[in-house]
Amino acid sequence: MSTPILRLVAQRIALGILLLLAVSVLIFAGTQILPGDVAQAILGQSATPEALANLREQLGLNDPAWLRYVHWLGGILHGDFGTAQSSGLDIASSIRVRLKNTLFLAACAAIVAVPLAIVLGLIAVRYRNGFVDKLISGLALASTSFPEFFIGYVLIFVFAVHWQIFPSISTVDETTPFLERLQAVVLPATALTLVVLAHMMRMTRAAILNVMQSAYIETAELKGLKPFDIIRKHAFPNAIAPVVNVVMLNLAYLIVGVVVVEVIFVYPGMGQYLVDHVAKRDVPVVQAVGLIFAAVYISLNIVADIAAILANPRLRHPK
Amino acid sequence: MQNELDHLVGLAGKGRISRRDFLGRAAALGASAALATTLAGKAFAATPVKGGLLRAGLQGGESTNSLDPALNLSQVTYSFCKQWGEFLVRLTPDNKLVNLIAEEIGASKDAKTWTIKVRDGIEFHNGKTVGAEDVAATIERHADEKSKSGALGILKNIKGVKASGKEVIVSLGDADADFPYLMADYHLVIQPNGGKDNPNAGISAGPYKVTVNQPGVKHGGERFANYWRGDKAGHADQIEIVVINDATARLAALQGGQVHMINRVEPKVVDLVKRIPGVSIENASGKGYYPFNMFCDTAPFDSADLRMALKLAMDRDEMLEKILRGYGSVGNDFPINEAYPLFTALEQRKFDPEKAAALYKKSGHSGSILLRTSDVAFPGAVDAAQLYQQSAAKAGIKIEIKREPGDGYWSEVWNKQPFSLSYWGGRATQDQMYATGYVSTADWNDTRFKNPAFDKMLYAARGELDQDKRKAIYHDMATLMRDEGGLIVPFFNQFIDAAASNKIDGFVKSPIGEMMDGYALAECWLKA
């Protein structure tokens, strides 16, 4: 690998870290302007003024905002996310379990969705504008157009209530054996697959079709290559950059945007964990989760960028 | 015939005859089929089956929950603490106070000093025996000024607690005839040394030991072998609460057989759920109510005529039918209903647009009246405000609705704005309810009802040990509140739970709280 590429990659990563720092400031500012305060939210409608004052004191809410931010950032640099203000549990260890669950579900959905979407995209291009293309596009668009909770409910109704072959509750914990875990995530992973499928499939189709207009494809056709070989060997490699981009966006979505599916299938992932703590104004947890989500987004985008750079022969072989 | 039937019921209770034989022999004795079935239901319900894993899917759990009973707030912690925790006393479904760890609670003549005798031979999960010191420390922890306990408000009157031998002596600042009822509060789980050493330990003397504690996901327990009343509770070997906050998912889990009972069935689907085979709806009238609060000291609500006009402009029956689909009971503009001890009914206030119009005119107010609402107040609160707007229009009163954001509703709107919708969960006794929300000095006097005569009656009733006299005072207070207060109560709600009646038995509806006042897992059992 040549120096310009290394420099480009290093630049991307440095930018990403800078961006992450800026995001942390934004997250912090955002949590500060929420109405109400943590103590009120923890104790709810039944809060007595005495209990409120005691809790505020104990949580250190009387310190100025910037001081709390500095303390928190310093802790994170030492790998310490602090303790949740509401439940008193260690944030890092709570997040570890939840993040593992989230990554597992996202991975299961991605392993099915990404290859499926790309293969369907390729098939759609091969039979473009024909019946197969329209069928694939129609089904994929329909599954994406339904809201996630609707797809979830339909899956539950058919597979959990009617046939009773998969559980409707996907509660897993650290002691759950791998196969049971796999069985538990079948329905939520299916729902997620249906949700993200169309976006990637359509993008693959569009990107390849774009390339198919090029002169060298015509040459390949004139050489007498089979249509599918043309797509696989000549068109797809040149369409990788936009496809990787959209795949990464969807992967990021699978990790940070699945709270609705988590709630419906009672899956203990990061989304529900974040929402609970936002409701309770638990600033340290919200910031920690927000930061992790931002890190996921930024690093997946970096991966997409790097892939695009590497897939570009002009950057790979500079003159 | 009655004697023979009783004998049969007795046999069934001991498990000596089968249900089929029971029905046959009851018929032979001349009992009607309906009577025989009812009797069989009671007789066989009385024989719990031990064993198995009983699971509940509950709404109201967050990953922010903790095991410290002082912080109990939402439904899951409320139910779970009744499985692992043991209390001094509890309220039964028929509103009687029953002693648990307390063997006896007695008052001095002035109702200012209370003595709690602690029962012998009750064991904590850690093997220690429950002693008077533990009880005293528990009360002390929750009553401490620095405590975060949700029970602090009701325990403020406690001036001193001390253990002496097997007794705990509690001295109060003011006389309080209801003191034993306060001890049934669901925060007051008796813990070793009051939980002062480790409030999150989850150790008490309840029927189940905590085995799983994953806040917001699930909680589990296994039967505590040395539970002191193992014949009454702790039938399943293991219990589990799965947190399912989504209403549809909860119902699907019950239908799919993954849980045996669920809470919070939405009124709009109750009729559909009733049609599901093997599922029963368990609804009980509770103490919770959904009020429209007017500030009695803020214009235009400082006019008694206007307040009465607004009360008469409420069509309670329509409200109950449309918002709660009939799963509730109409309110009467005071916060007490038949779920409270010492309740007396008053004449029901009816929708009367003509009288409301006349009083409205008399009040001299003109222009629209601003009503604030949000779905956070209670499910359907926005619809309720709109219904009220329509019924008030029939009396010529113009209501303007402002929909407030849910975030911060409890801190910015409720108890701050002069006319808004709210929710109250009810309290153990009438005294507590009035003292928390309607006495002049209460922090949460969310109708700014400041009536010296009312306050005086409240304190008189509190120190009165003669129950008939207290009942009479509460009757007068209710009348005063209904006619002069700033409170409009369209309806009281119901707890609507559902159970897999083909798989479990022993469910007893309770007006005290949902899921049999939280005891459903401990006291139901899996059918053999």
Helix and strand arrangement:
The complex is a heterodimer of chains A (about 325) and B (about 525).
Chain A: H1 3-32, H2 38-43, H3 49-59, H4 65-77, H5 91-126, H6 131-145, H7 148-162, H8 178-212, H9 215-223, H10 227-256, H11 259-265, H12 270-279, H13 283-311, H14 313-316
Chain B: H1 2-13, H2 19-28, H3 33-45, E1 53-58, H4 75-84, E2 89-91, E3 97-99, E4 102-107, E5 113-118, H5 132-143, H6 152-155, E6 158-164, E7 167-172, H7 179-182, E8 208-214, E9 218-223, E10 238-243, H8 247-255, E11 261-262, H9 270-273, E12 280-289, E13 292-294, H10 304-312, H11 316-323, E14 328-330, H12 353-363, E15 369-373, H13 381-393, E16 399-403, H14 409-413, E17 419-421, H15 430-437, H16 452-462, H17 467-484, E18 487-488, E19 491-499, E20 504-505, H18 514-517, H19 520-523, E21 525-526
Parallel strand pairs in B: 1-10, 1-11, 15-16
Antiparallel strand pairs in B: 2-3, 4-5, 5-7, 6-7, 8-9, 9-10, 11-19, 12-19, 13-17, 13-18, 14-19, 20-21
Total beta-strand segments of chain B: 21
What general outline of chain A do the C-alpha atoms trace?
Answer: globular
Portion in strands of chain B: 15-25%
Q: In percent, how helical is the residue content of chain B?
A: 25-40%
Which CATH C-level class of one domain in chain A is it? Mainly Alpha
CATH superfamily of one domain in chain A: MetI-like
Which pair of chains has the greatest number of interface residues, and how are they split between the two chains?
A-B, 45 and 47 residues
Distance between the termini of chain A: 14 Å
- Poorly predicted ranges of chain A: none
CATH topology of one domain in chain A: MetI-like fold
